[in-house]
Amino acid sequence: MKQEPVGLFEKYFIIWFRIVTERIWTGDKKVRNTFLAILGFGVLNGFLLTGSVKDFFRLGEAAVYDIPSTLYGLNDKGEYEPIAEYYKFSRIPVKLEQLKSEETNYSADNRHKVIQCFLSTEDNSFYSHNGIDLKGIARAFVVNLMAGRVKEGASTITQQVARLKFLSIERSIARKAREAWLAILLEFVYPKDKILEVYLNEIPLGHGTIGVGAASRFYFRKEVQDLSWGEAAILASLTTRPTQFSPIVNPVSSMNKVRVVFRKLVENGRMTVADAEKEFGILEEYYTNLNRSPNDSAFSDRLNRFPYVTEYIRKNLIRSIGSSRLYNGGLKIYSTIQIRHQEEAEKALLPALQRQTIESNQRAFRNIDAFDDLYGSGYSLIADLYDLPEFKFKISKIERTFSSAYQEDIRDEFYALNLLTGDDYLGDTLDKNYTSQITKDHLLPVEGSLIAIRPETGYITALVGGSGFRSDNQQIRPFQAFRQPGSAFKPVLYAAAMDYSGKNPDPEKNVTPATLFADSPLQYLMEDGDEWAPENYSSEYSGFILLRKALEQSKNSVAVRVLEQVGLSNLMESLRGLLQLQGRDIPYNFSVSLGSFELTPYELTRAYAALASGGKTVNPISVLYVEDNAGNVIKDFRKDYEDVERKQIISKEAAFLITSMMKDVVEEGTGRGVLSYGLNRKAYGKTGTTNNFRDAWFVGYTPELVTSVWFGYDVGTISLGRGMTGGKLSAPVWGRFMARALEKEPAKEFPWLADVKITKRTVCRMSGKLPSNQCHDLLEEYFIPQTVPKDICNDHGSAWNVVESKPQSPVIQKPVEPKKQDTKVEKKPSESKPPKRKKSVFSGDEEIDY
Fold first, then answer.
1. CA-based nearest residue to 524, from 594, 593, 595, 590
2. Which of 22, 247, 277, 602 is 20 to 30 A distant from 171 in Cα terms?
């Protein structure tokens, strides 16, 4: 038979036990030796039940508190400012030195009133015993015996500290024995003042508060140093049953318990009867004006200025440092959030979402009983056949009916009646109910997203995840909403196409801002026999059009033809590098050109950030580093950020060209709405609207900041309404945010422009080719040197088709001068005004707001 191995300690114990036994039974004093052995083994067993060698090493933990962690953001002065706290229980550590002596002569003991109240009620002989109060144990035994129940406890403050720090609340003889043992050890290690300080910081006082510091702030909105005698007495009354004696939950029970505290103060000689009555009378005003919900907790008082930011960073930190350390470690978390940016983001997006909810007017499905009424019996049959679960509602029909009637009818009548009666409590309750109901009359809320990233550093400076952070709306949509980007994807596609042409020049297939494409209907026969016919937003077409103008007017047919001309396989590497999709790939079909696949706002914003960085990938970061309570850096995310290589996905020249094209979108095209709020710097961006107006986008940047704004319903099949485009909804919000957020920041240019090698040429506005003597409508365009057109325009047969047009100004900072062989003095057009050509049958959608 296989036997368990015997360890070295077991072998030694067996040998020692044999030696001791032999000594007991040898010699003349067998009875005495036996008695001593029994006594020794009894003491040893008692120690093993009540104590442990580990206890000596755990005593240092007694003075260590679980402290909430604080999240910091940057203010306008570049200084870190608290914006949120993380904790499960509120605790504000208090040093005993902060509790100054009392100036009143109520008693010989002039310690702070909070200390005197707790000593009187919990352990009046605290400073005279050694951890265990034998007199108190005897007194409590007699009192409880006479009462027939546990009426008075015998635990000293030191014992309570031992229980709070090391033990559970289980009521047993073994637990009480360990409590006494640990109390004795604590008295040996710590001075009395330190034990009292630990007690005041560890005692639970109800509503999610731990310690007198947090309780003082929750119950009285005061610091503990500023409490009155009555308020200190309330805190001391909460030590046994905080919920039962809470002044918020049971004011009457609380007042009765506070009387007991004052009686103890009088009995212990800390206060006279007259003084106690005076202080209790002052306290009555607190109870008279008390108007708070019994469900209030310290968690609702938690500092949380920007809930979406707090939640996003919380989820990330739990993965990297753990929840226990985050909630209890007293950490200082330094984020990249800029307070001005975040405030302006919420001011810009949240009201716009509420207005759009009313404008879109999509009502929630209310007749939820219809299925049960019409098909309930049929469902039962199907459930029996296919073993389906029972069809249930989370709440009853009566509850739903009352909730609907209250919201639509009864509440307004209550509000009107309350104006006559003037009841403050009812008025506050109704006001709170009105403000907490974000969507009116069962309207589905239009949701949205705004995220802002610094293109050079990757710092996330602002983040809004929806119409309001509530218990039923905690989705962080910049990272969790997968939606089709629509036309907002075109700049990414065009940048990749122009980059490919610059690296693989082909006069027949080059894609440049001046490349001429046919804007006309398309129709494809798919492999499965279906037909795909992409259309422009307006269903109107302009004939042949330059790529710059096609982006400005968001021509879908041109986007498809760009992809068709270059080839999707040739662009895949660049598109993957710009989007950096994790765990999924870009679909391999032509509909990619119209943004038909799903991206998160974060992913699309990161791709635009790469364009704003001169074609380099950007690695966004939201937290810089984390310090412990002693100021030591325990996690430095900056090192992780620096270790990730920033790859050059497309050339700086391609980034320059798409940036210049997006400037036209903002100034002349579908993105003109961004200028509504007086943005005082150059901006570059693109609108996006998906089929049936389900999503509305604007994504763009300045040299300082890249931002995306998205509008849509969480249910992706619901329309925002006819005409609800990215230019109408998202562009104004983007413009307002950027104007206000960057208001105090100086405008600057892209730092990578100095390295751009771009050639500037005058071309024919009609054909995009080098002008001939017959070309009178010219424009200056930028090219990657390898893609400069070589053909001379010969598309003009007479003067009737010349279009009058004003010359375009340079789009962004003047690029580096080209080499001499690239420069060519172009012939200036005739100053005489040519006749205007007749309107083309394909024109007419230039003024449409896409």
1. 590
2. 247
Closest CA to 638 of 454, 459, 462: 459
The sign of the dihedral angle between the CA atoms of 497, 499, 504, 509 is: positive
Alpha helices in 1-29 (DSSP H): 8-24
Q: Say which DSSP state 828 is in.
A: P
Say how far apart CA 645 and CA 580 lie, in whole Å.
Answer: 13
Tokens of 209: 């508060």
Q: How far apart are CA 532 and CA 523, in angstroms?
A: 6
Per-position b or e across 409-444, b if 16+ CB within 10 A of its CB: eeeeeeeeebeeeeeeeeeeebeeeeeeebbeeebb
Q: How far apart are CA 541 and CA 555, in angstroms?
A: 8
| Two structure tokens written together for 382 | 């199907």
Q: How far apart are CA 738 and CA 742, in angstroms?
A: 6
Residue 662: other Cβ atoms inside 10 A: 30
pLDDT for res 271: 87
CA–CA distance from 654 to each of 301, 500, 769 (Å)? 51, 9, 19
For the ranges 104-118, 454-468, 636-650, which has the lowest average pLDDT? 104-118
Q: pTM value?
A: 0.76
- Measured at the CA of 517, the angle between CA 514 and CA 522, to 5 degrees, comes to 160
pLDDT digits (tens, 9 = 90+) for 603-623: 999 999 999 999 999 999 999
Centroid of chain to Cα 290: 34
**DSSP per-residue string spanning 371-439:** HHHHHHHHHHHHHHHHTPPPP--SS-HHHHHHHHHIIIIIHHHHHHHHHHH--HHHHHHHHHHHHH--S
Q: Which helix (H) or strand (E) holds 779?
A: strand 778-783
Quick: pLDDT tens for 155-166: 888 888 888 887
Q: What is the per-residue pLDDT across 15-54, written as a single tens digit (0 to 9) for each?
A: 766 676 666 666 666 677 777 766 766 665 555 556 666 7
If DSSP codes are grouped into helix, strand and coil, which group holds residue 614?
A: coil
Q: How far is it, in rounded angstroms, from Cα 546 to Cα 552?
A: 10
Residue whose token pair is 């041109």: 558
Residue 7, token pair as written in the block: 């360890």
Give the Å distances, CA to CA, from 148 to 10, 145, 152, 154.
Answer: 48, 5, 11, 16
Query: What is the DSSP code (8-state) at residue 98?
Result: G
Query: Alpha carbon of 65 to those of 161, 167, 178, 627, 704: distances in Å?
Result: 12, 15, 21, 16, 42
Distances (CA, A) of 481 to 348, 350, 451, 466, 600: 20, 17, 13, 10, 5
At 421, the amino acid letter reads T
Residue 71 near residue 339, CB atoms below 8 Å: no
State the Rg of the chain over Cα.
38
More confident residue, 397 or 644: 644
At 306, list the tokens.
């920007």
CA dihedral 777→782→788→793, nearest 10 degrees, is -10
Quick check: 635 and 487 in contact, CB under 8 A? no
Residue-by-residue DSSP string for 115-169: HHHHHHHH-TTTTTSSS--HHHHHHHHHHHHHHTS--S----HHHHHHHHHH--S
Q: Which helix (H) or strand (E) holds 712?
A: strand 706-712
Tens-place pLDDT, residues 466-490? 999 987 788 999 999 999 999 999 9
Which tokens sit at 283? 């306290």
**Whole-number average pLDDT of the chain:** 82
Side-chain half-sphere CA neighbours of 259 within 13 A: 7
- Are 117 and 236 a contacting pair, CB within 8 Å? yes
Cα torsion 509, 513, 518, 519 to 10°: value is: 140
